[in-house]
Structure formats: structure tokens, C-alpha cells
Amino acid sequence: MREFLLGLRLLFGAGRGNRLRFFLMAAGSSLGVCCLALVLTIPAVLDAHDGRAAAREPQTTSVSKAKGGSALVLERRDPHGSRPFTRVFVARGGAHQQPPPGLDALPAPGELYLSPRLHDLLHSEPGIKGLLPGRERGLIGAPGLADPDELYAYVGTTRAEIAHDADTGALQSFGYSYAPVSVVEPSTLTNLRFALATLVLLPLAVFLSVCARLSAASRTRRLASLRLLGLSSRGTQRVNAAETVAAALLGVLLGLGEYWLLNQVMSRSGLPALRWYPADGALSWTTAVVCLVGCPALAWFVGRASARGAAASPLAVRRTAVPKPPSKWGGLLLVTGLGIVTGFCATGLTDHPATSNGVFGLLLVGGVLLTGMGLVLALPWLSYLLARKLAGTTQSLTLNLAMRRNEVEPGSAMRVVTGLVLLVFAASLAQGVLIEFEQVSRPSNPVQDYSVPLTALTEEQQERLAEVPGVRAHARTMVSWSKPTDSGFPPQATALIATCAQLTRLVRSVEGCQEGRVMRLVNPNSSTDPDIRPGASFPFRLRDGQRHLTLSLTLPSAATVVRPYDPSAVGDASVIVPPSRLPAHARPQSGFLVLNSDSDPHVVRAVLDGIGTAAPTASVEPVGVNVDSLQQIAVIETLLVLGMIMGLVIGVAAFLVAVTDRAVERRAQVTAITLIGARRRTLRAVQSVQVVLPLAIGLTLAVVTGKLAESSYLITGGGEVFWDFAGVPVLVCAALGVVVVATLGTLPLVGRRIDPELVRRD
Questions:
Q1: pTM for this one?
Q2: Residue 233: in which H helix or E strand, if any?
Q3: Which range among 145-149, 374-378, 607-611, 723-727 has the greatest average pLDDT?
Q4: Rounded Cα distance, 197 and 643, in Å
């Protein structure tokens, strides 16, 4: 306790510069704590989303087994654009039933309860009123909504209207132990946590260490003085640790306050595809304890380690003796981590690549983390070896001065470049996570089909849908009609109303299509319906205004060989009919409008949004695609981008803090060299070389080790892509950009004013 109090007295009594450094340490630590709290709270936000979705899920039983007084429930989940639109039809029973979360009572027939976002949408798009029969009675409260932007409605109805629907169930209660659709699947969430840990937590640990080592040289000399005055070795380390712990504690309190403000702002403005309530992102006790204990503990160990030299050899510190070479133990961690990830990469060259199941998943994570930590800890030793080699062989004054300084003090330059090196290492891993997720979420088809019932569309809406940005082709289908007989339903045929050009864009390949002719469609990869044969006739009902027409088509012997995509909205069509063969102004009485676009998730979301804008009440089936999956893709991409932004902010902040600290610490040396005749141009070149050369070593290692770690992750992921060669140019360009930024950041290290008082004697 005496050493702790002594450290605090020295902190506030050692002058304005020391106090300024303390507050800089606290401010830097607060930024790191804010980012740490954000990363730790993301799973809680997702869990809160799933928890509310699970709490409102109706538990039902079959209508036939239900009691007469039970309420009936029918749930409809349709896409509105690229977002799910859920309607829950409720028919009250005779007995009192507990309402779902967010409502005070079950809706009566003709009553509507809407989510706030759906309430606003109803006013901006009155066309969706057809999907919501009844009058609006109130809004659904926050406990009944997964997120503030959800489109959700409870529609009151009568038992007669929904009792005979096959999907109707008798309501028992509300609430399940799990959400029907998770915002992020558990397996994907594991990969997401791994990515965020690499993108944020590794640079964060380096950044907090940099903040704890501000003005390291000045503090070491002061601690050496205390040691020479009789303070014990452990007491000297505790004095230094007291200052760093005090700064870390203040930084934790500031950082938690910053996170509280950030949560209030972000929860109200939201992120793309992700919204939450402020209570979802509130600080939990676990997060607060991790920040309050973890950050000061890291500062304590860093402070004790930085004071070890002053406590062990105080006279050498005061006389500025040549320090010992850096430790080689960091190289052991790097070699161990590289050995693990290289072993996983080697399995990718065999017929049985490794997987991330069981212990192999933990081994992979450990290998990546060991590689990242070893990269940081091995840089001072590698920089020392290179500096010593170059200083002994070069004839250049600039290079000699720069390398001698790095040889004497390799850790100073490393504090400047470590954050940027880890940034490039994490960027490579981020590429691997994005590739892995793209392989999982990317459709196997290069195109995406959309099917919209023609009965829900006007002629004007059909024209608008065909012009939606992203739509490549469009056509219509119609199904033949025949009156059912006692023996069952007669055979049916599906006709595709399209030109050969439209057909070519809707399927994988077309052979033998003749423009303007009715032709059978033959798929060699599927069995042929025996009723679909040349000479068979099928009636199709058409409508021309108020008139009803019947078109009888006889299947010709001429056939077109088509190979549709799987799945496809036109795969079951048996005949192609040119639009010119239909009567003027006639349209099928029943059928679908088929649209086609690229299968890229961004294009699919844009097309669905366009369909929702042009025809908000139409039921859209994106063939083979689940709208919930599109939402999940958007959420994960948002979180990955957020992690990369946080990693970038932390890396740049570590660089700026270290550069500023280095400029202050090196003033005496720069002044001394200037007074003996060195030109400012030479000093700027020396300062740049001191940073750029170690940075070049670190970036080269970061690119190599990052690609190895990325490849090991891709191999164990089980996807088709093992070696991301396409990402190498991007990573190299990023590394070159980092070198340019670091070079520009070293220029202010040589000031314009020369103060001879900075040169002091012991």
C-alpha cells in the first residue's frame, strides 16, 4: 500500500507533463475499453433478439384435439421486399387466454395490433392494407418484438374464417425455449466470434499495452532514481504499476461511460440490417467485471514488466548503458503457432483435409492466436538482429544512425508499428471469414427466380416488376384447367408464355427453339409425364377485361430441349407459347409472373425490395431462397464490417499514440544530434528509416503468416476454396498503404524548434 500511495503522489506531483501523460493513458485505455465492451455485448444483443422471438411463439395443438373454448391461431410469414412480414391471425375462444408479450389482450375480430415499423409502413404504403383486414387498435410493445424494425401484426378474426385452414392450430400458450428463426445460426455465430476476437481483441491488447507504456524511457529513469534512493526492487515495480493501474481504472470508467453513450446512439440509429433496443445492449455484470478486472490487470503486468529493468539495474538506466538484447521467447511462440497452422495447411494438399470438429477447432484457434502473439513478441528481436547487421555493414550515415538507434532501443520502434502489423494480419483473416461465409451462403445457381401470382397483379404492376433494377428476364406461366371428375383430377399442363430469347435467359441451356412457334419443352435430366405427349390437348382460361375466354392448346410434335436450373420457377413447364399466340389484351386467369436475376445476395435483396415497392400486397416466392437467410447474411456482414472498423480504429489509434509518445521521448536525442551538425533533412530520413524498416519486416511476416492462418481456417471450414490467391494483391496494397501512412506519421518527429535545455547531464 505504501508503494501504491507513493506512486499516486509521484503521479500528481511530478509536473504538468506527467499529469498530461496520465490523462493520455486514461483516454487511450477508455477507447480500448469501449471497443472491448462493444465486442462482449454483441452476443447479448443477439440473444435478446432471439429471446423475445421465442417468448411470443404460440404453442398450439391440432384443432380436432383442442377444447371448444380454445383460441385459434394461424401464422403467415411472407417477404415484404427482402424483409420478413409476419401476420398472426387470432380467433378468440370462450375461455380467457393469456395474451402474447407486448399485448394486454388478444385482438377481437376486426382488430389490428401492429408493430411501430409496420404502423409507419401502412401509412406510407396503403396498398398493404389488403393484407391487414380490420381497424388498428394499438401498437405491439417492445417485449413482443424481436427488434424495433420488425414487420409484425396480430389480426383479430373469427373462428369460421381460419378453422378449416390446414395451418391453423388451437392455442395453448405463448413461449418456447428457443427462437423459431435465430438471427444468427449457432454454427455461424462461432465463426463470427472467432473473427471478432481476431479483428478486435488482438489489436486491442496491443493498444492497451501501448497506452500503459507511454513515456516509458522517462518513467524508467525516474524509477531508477527511486531505486537508487533505497526503494526495494519489488517496491519500485509496484510504484510504476500503481500509476498504470490508476490510469487503467480511470480509463475503464471513462470507456464504460463512452460505451453507454454509444449504445444509446447506435440503438436508436441502428446499423444496416441490425437494430436493437437500448436495454439489449446495456452493460451486463459480466462485461463490467471483465473490463474492471481485465484492463487494470493487464496494466499491472505491463507496468511491472516495464519497471523490471530499472529495479534490477538502476545505475545502468541512469547512465544510459547499452540495454540487453530483446528476448527470443517471442520467436518460440511464433514458430509454435506457425507449426500448427502450417500443419493444417499441409492437410489441404491431401485427399483428407482436416476439419474444425472437436479438439481440432480449439487447436486451430490456439494456432492462430499463438501466431498473432508470436508475431508481436518476435518483432523486437528480429528488428534488433537486422539493425545490428545493417549498422555493421552500411556506409550510409542515415542508415547507420537509424540502425544504431534500433539496435539500442528496438522496443521503441516496435510500439509504433505493432498495431499496424496486427491490422494487416487481422485483415487477412477477415478475408478468410468472408470467403468461408460466402461459400456457405452463396446459392449454387448463378441466377435467382421469383414467382408472383398473376391474380395479385395489374397490367401496370407487371410492367413495373419487369423493369425492377436487377431483373434480367421475365415471363408468365399459366396452368391448364379441367373440371374434376368422379375418378379424380384430369392431367394438367403448365405453359410458359415467353419468347425464345426470354426462355434462354430463364434456363441453363436451350436447343432447337424456333421463334413464334408453340413447342413442347423437353428436359433430358428428368422423367417425362406420360400425359404430356404430342397431340394431347389442354384448355387454358384467359380473361379479357370482364370477358372470360378459353384457349385450347394441342401439344405439337416439335420440341425444344431445355436444361433448367435447380430449383427453377419454369422447370415444370411443358410447352412454350409465344405471347403473339394469345388474343389481344387477354391475360391468364391463373398463373404466375416469373422474374429472374443474378443470385448475388445483394442483388436478391435489391430485387425483393423493388418487388415490394411495386406490388406491396403481392405474395412473392423467391424460389429456393429463405428470406430469413437473407436477413442473416446482412446481419453477419454488418457485424464483420463493424469488427473491421473497430480493428482499424484501434490500429490507427495505437499508431498515433505511439508516434506522439515517441516524438516527446526522442526530443533530447534529436536535439543532441542537431547540435553537432546534423541537418533536419537527414534527421527526418533517419526517423523514417527507424520506423519503416521494422515495419517492412513486420508487414512481410504479417502477410505470410496471415495467409497461412487464413488458409488453415478455409481448409478446416470444409469449403471449396482453400487458397485465397485472389486476396494477396489486396493485402499487399494494404501493406503498402500502411507503409506510406507510417512514413508520413514519422515526419513530425523532428520539430522545427531546437531547445538546448533538453540536453541534460546526470
A1: 0.70
A2: helix 233-269
A3: 145-149
A4: 9
DSSP label of 59: E
At residue 532, φ and ψ (nearest 5 deg) are -95, 90
Averaged pLDDT for residues 625-636: 72
Q: Calculate the alpha carbon distances from 156 to 89, 167, 602 in Å.
A: 6, 16, 36
- Measure the CA–CA gap between 102 and 359, rounded to whole angstroms: 44
Task: Give CA–CA dist 21/293, Å, rounded.
Answer: 22
Torsion of CA 541, 544, 547, 550, to 10 degrees: -20
SS3 68: coil
- When pLDDT is cut at 50, 70 and 90, the band that residue 428 belongs to is confident
Give the angle subtended at the CA of 228 by the CAs of 225 and 234, to the nearest 5°: 90
Q: Look at the block and give the residue holding cell 413464334.
A: 516
> Bridge-partner residues for 475, per DSSP?
594
**CA separation for the pair 560, 219 (Å, rounded):** 84
Longest dimension (CA), the chain: 113
Helix (H) or strand (E) segment spanning residue 576: strand 575-577
CB-count burial class (<10 Å; 0-12, 13-18, 19+) for 677: exposed
CA distances from 254 to 25, 89, 240, 470, 654 (A): 12, 49, 21, 47, 18
Spatial distance between the Cα atoms of 651 and 631, rounded to a whole number of angstroms: 30
Q: Pick the residue with more confidence: 181 or 116?
A: 116
For residue 139 the three cell numbers come to 401498437
CB 182 within 8 A of CB 52: no
Q: Within 13 Å and on the Cβ side, how many CA atoms surround 247?
A: 34
- Average pLDDT of the residues in 265-275: 81
CA atoms within 13 A on the CB side of 736: 6
pLDDT, one tens digit per residue, over 197-213 is 767 777 777 777 777 66
pLDDT of 762: 36
**Residue 405 predicted with pLDDT over 90:** no
Task: Quote the percentage of the chain above a pLDDT of 70.
Answer: 76
Grid coordinates of 551: 384457349
Distances (CA, A) of 160 to 71, 107, 165: 12, 16, 10
CA angle 514, 518, 519 (to 5 degrees): 70
For 513, the grid coordinates are: 427453339
